[in-house]
Amino acid sequence: MSDEPKSEAELLRYLNALRSRVRQSEPAQPEKEAEQAKESEQVFRVIFDNAADGIVITDVESKKFYMTNRVFRQMLGYSQHE
């Protein structure tokens, strides 16, 4: 992946391709699985935090926000801790 700016769709395709490669790899050891999960979380965070669109992850039943990205918070005028 080059250092050029990527669209959210491109980053999501990249993340899905990485996840697919991980699933197809040989059976992993617990330590390797933990490292792969950590790497996947890091990729998700980069995509989520740097998306040009506002993103929110909610629980529909409780109507609580679990995660919001910076753009979403800016749109509503809130800080991360609010």
Structure write-up:
- With 82 residues, the chain is mostly helical.
- The chain has 2 domains: 51 residues; 31 residues, no CATH class.
- 55% of the residues lie in helices and 11% in strands.
- It contains 3 helices and 2 strands.
- A two-stranded antiparallel ribbon has the order 1-2.
- It starts with 7 loop residues before the first helix and ends in a 6-residue tail after the last helix.
- The mean pLDDT is 85.
Can you lay out the helices and strands and say which pair or pack?
Elements: H1 8-24, H2 30-50, E1 56-59, E2 64-68, H3 70-76
Antiparallel strand pairs: 1-2
Helix pairs in contact: 1-2
Strand content: 5-15%
Low-confidence stretches: none
Summarize the helix and strand pattern as letters. Answer: HHEEH
The overall average pLDDT, rounded, is 85
> Which structural class best describes the helix and strand composition?
mainly alpha
Distance between the termini: 35 Å
Give the spatial strand order of the biggest sheet.
1-2
How many independent structural domains? 2
Helicity range of the residues? Answer: 40-55%
Largest sheet: 2 strands, antiparallel
Keywords:
82 residues; mainly alpha; 2 domains; two-stranded antiparallel sheet; 3 helices; 11% strand; globular
Quick rundown:
The chain is mainly alpha-helical and 82 residues long. It is 55% helix and 11% strand.
